[in-house]
Design a protein that fits this description.
Distance between the termini: 52 Å
Number of strands: 7
Bound molecules: iron/sulfur cluster
Order of helices and strands: EHHHEEEEHEEHHHH
Length: about 200
């Protein structure tokens, strides 16, 4: 097992939550990654020592941290359902719309891949639970999900501080975006209109 990074060091593995952020908007991920605008470092914990401290009640396992260097991925699964020999990650979401998004499926796929790397058994189903509706959706993790996870990891790892991704082509996403004050989509569209071409923002200013 590789030595975990300490807080303050950049981890070379990609956190699973970053998959969701990147799918939402690569530019948002860029600002979070390079400018630490969210201000909260990942809690980097040795997987084995964390394992020993876990609470396990009935059919639920909570807060399990995993690293998989072969996947270039790490992350904490908040909840795993244990039914017999089958372990199923559960991703809980707040979604005022009452729906989950493709980015949530990609994140869940990342957790399934991490879990199966740890237990060395296939994990082909995960759950998305929505607080607002108290509903749970079983998601079959397909080869397409897995390929998407790998592609996003490659894209994230090829990003550099010198290259800011373009504005999203869906300005509605910007309304609830925590990186907006750094990204400044309206100002970009006014001052550098060529950068807003084809994004939807050129019609907003
Ligand atoms: S404000 Fe919009 S374009 Fe900028 S990072 Fe957020 S979602 Fe992306």
């Amino acid at each position: 097992m590789s030595t975990p990074q300490t807080i303050g060091q950049r981890d070379t593995l990609v956190p699973v939550s970053a998959l969701n952020e990147f799918v939402y908007c690569p530019r948002r991920f860029y600002y979070q990654h390079y400018h630490d605008e969210m201000g909260t470092p990942y809690e980097l914990i040795d997987g084995r020592s964390k394992h020993e401290k876990q609470s396990q009640r009935g059919g639920w396992i909570t807060e399990r941290y995993f690293r998989a260097t072969e996947l270039d991925l790490h992350g904490k699964i908040d909840l795993i359902e244990s039914g017999g020999d089958v372990l199923t990650p559960v991703e809980r979401k707040r979604a005022e719309s009452g729906q989950y998004f493709p980015s949530d499926e990609v994140q869940l796929a990342g957790y399934c891949m991490l879990l199966e790397a740890a237990i060395e058994e296939p994990v082909n189903v995960g759950y998305i639970y929505l607080y607002e509706t108290d509903e749970r959706y079983a998601i079959q993790i397909t080869e397409s999900h897995r390929e998407t996870v790998h592609k996003i990891i490659d894209k994230i790892r090829s990003m550099s501080v010198d290259s800011i991704p373009p504005l999203t082509d869906n300005p509605k996403k910007c309304e609830a975006c925590s990186a907006r004050e750094y990204c400044m989509p309206e100002e970009t569209a006014i001052l550098e209109p060529e950068k807003a071409q084809g994004t939807g923002w050129e019609g907003e200013v």
